[in-house]
Amino acid sequence: MCPQVGEGFNRDYWAHFEDFCRRLTNHYPSVRIVTGPLYLPKRDHEDGKWRVSYEVIGNPPNVSVPTHFYKVIFAEDGKTGGDVSLGAFVLPNARIDNEKPLQSFEVPIEAIERASGLEFAGKLPAQRRKRLCEQVTCSLLVRDYADRQKNLMGSPPPKKSGAGPTPT
Question: pTM above 0.85?
């Protein structure tokens, strides 16, 4: 678990992004997602040097607050040796306007591998790799957080046809 900005991120954009990920299962028989924190540098506007700076919370202060979060998505077509649609996204741990396109956070998977020190798809042959956002429409379905909370406590929302990401 990592601390996330609540309003404008965890209860908004990030929640819509997680809903997008769940809806991928309407299109793919196997979807695996790796999510994690990142502590990325920013250029200091005074001296031009790159620095990593992040908040530390708690009492005593001992919990580091990530500057960003990533999701690496593996969506498989279900065939042995078949295609794997890969999506890699890095989002700042900050308020994000719900109108911001999801694709604006898409990055090469290698960028997340470098920043995290992890390897995600190094052994996946290039001929099996597809870019997720070329296979489905990478966009968010924005729902009000308060309405989602009501649905969690009461009956589930009605099913909508075409509720999954749409193939392109």
Answer: no
